[in-house]
# Entry
Amino acid sequence: MVPSRCRAPVRFLLSAEISSIYKKNERTRKVHNLVFIPTMDAARRIQAPLSRIGNIQSDGRPILGLDAKELLKIVKENSDEAVLVPAHAWTPHFSVLGAKSGFDSLAECFEELTAHIPAIETGLSSDPPMNWRLSVLNEVRLISNSDAHSPIKLMREANLFDTDLTYHAIMTSITEPASHGFLGTLEFYPEEGKYHYDGHRACSMRLAPEETRNNGGRCPKCNRKVTVGVMHRVEELADLPAGSCSPAGRPYQSTIPLMEIIAEVMQAGVNTKKVMGAYLDLLSRLGNEYHVLLEAELDSIRQTSSDLLAEAISRVRSGRVEIQPGYDGEFGTIRVFSKEERQQITGQLDLF
Ligand SMILES: [Zn+2]
Ligand SMILES: [Zn+2]
# Structure
């Protein structure tokens, strides 16, 4: 149940994610793309040729044996207002720049149609500063959708707009470099993403890029090749030093899903009833998650919950958190307080 303070009109924008699995230049490529579509009519026009290539009904994210460039061509031929954006562009196994089955550049994938790619999705394991290290990516917008998979994960990342609420206005702010309607993104801390570092999940081996290089790309435990993560891949393709800013770059704010912060504060699992109860309670008293995470006065958080949660949210807002980076499909883990700090802040107080 959505707490009444969090209710608002919900609008939808037609979009789909399509997985392309195909061979190009003697290598198997697996690339996920998002398609944004202006009208139901345009959607039907795009569906017709795609349904002759593969089954687009059996799965929410259809898999087609179709070159990503051909997909772009079909999309554009059937609706010049439709927009294709490479999804989570850096993940190792299913993305346009991924280490395992992607390309070394957008141009290698989309060739003469590359100019029709106005944006990429940074994905959970990368953030704007990482992408700014590639001069070619300074020409595209960096957007961040939730890649939600389940409703509770909606808005774990988000795009912020100041436009009319129409397809045309929203998409123009992405496709037109001169537009000011795209304000920036709300981001996961990239370390929290499942593929930030390199490693081997089965062996519990988490490796920083330079450790992987020192090990010849192999797992120190089992000696097989490790899954190369997003940080490593960015370093491989970057032509600009760390800390470079894109002139067209937009502001971003890193945050952590509220339920995870509450779980850390309560020292309970994120999927427990206890954490869900505290989460809904907070939302019903203060307002929606975005408001609590980014805007609410720390004092009112303190009064409605606890000193510890107010302090945790303050730390998340200013980046004072410790994160063990994710690797090989394993999410990163956050830690906001050390044991001593926790005692210092709580004193004798109860948490909730
Ligand atoms: Zn995907
Ligand atoms: Zn291993």
Remarks:
- The chain is about 30% helix and 15% strand.
